[in-house]
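Hi all, long-time lurker, first post. I run a small reading group and we've been trying to get comfortable going from sequence to structure in the token notation. Rather than ask abstract questions, I figured I'd post a concrete chain and ask someone more experienced to write out its structure so we can walk through it together at our next meeting. Sequence below, copied exactly:
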Amino acid sequence: MDIKNLFNVKDKVVLVTGGSRGIGEMIATVWVNIKNIYYACYVSAGAKVYISSRSADACDQVAKALSAQGPGRCIAVPADLQKLEEVHRLVAEISKHETHLDVLVNNAGANWAENFDTFPDAAFEKVINLNLKRVFSLTQACMPLLTAKSNVNNPSSVINIGSIDGFRAAPQMTFAYTSAKAGLHHLTRHMAGKLGERGVIFNSIAPGAFQSKMMNETLKKFGDSIRAKIPIGRIGTPEDVAGTCIYLSSRAGQYTNGATIVIDGGSICYSKM
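-- Answer (accepted) --
Happy to help. Here is the structure in token form:
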């Protein structure tokens, strides 16, 4: 067993989509978008990472900062993944520079919280479209790159970012989001069962509460209550989610296919008399 290279992702080509908040009053879910962590963990491990989100400025800033830190590289390719034509443009841009793709992290997502009686049809449509339908669209478009040099003994990896809210009725009125994430977990299993023979593995990660810039205010107000419902007694850290991504992208995770890995400190198992 080559322990030295078990978690090695050096020189792998990675695409990470990243979290446009989209329409109007769209809000982040309880675990909040921590997309920079995915970028950073791969670049720090020596991979070549393409990042994409709707904001060109945000993409460029992250790419420049992470490339400067190295040792890997980060390249920005902005795209609005709500639009199917933008999905295909993104893949075409990457194909100009790469002959294959080792890892695809489907992290772009959106949320909307509103009372049941006034929940807009357009909001439901857009949340489902970005969080579920476009994951399928982008994965489908990337398959030629994902299968270009992979095989069953050296598979490429698709990682779909779900949520613990895909397993439970969330405290917020985020009806479209919870439906999309539950669907995403099952879509991952379906693709794993049907497409593994092509040399691609499919898994999802379901995060719980994580410390992040966007969750600072929530933690200030409700931090003690949130922690009290996490059996290990703390909020997630960048290392927790980054390590899971590296595992699923490396030799260590090559026999994990169709799994949904919950990283929530056990909060989904919380039980108190």
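A couple of things your group might point at:
The CA atoms of residues 64 and 74 lie 7 Å apart.
The chain is about 40% helix and 15% strand.
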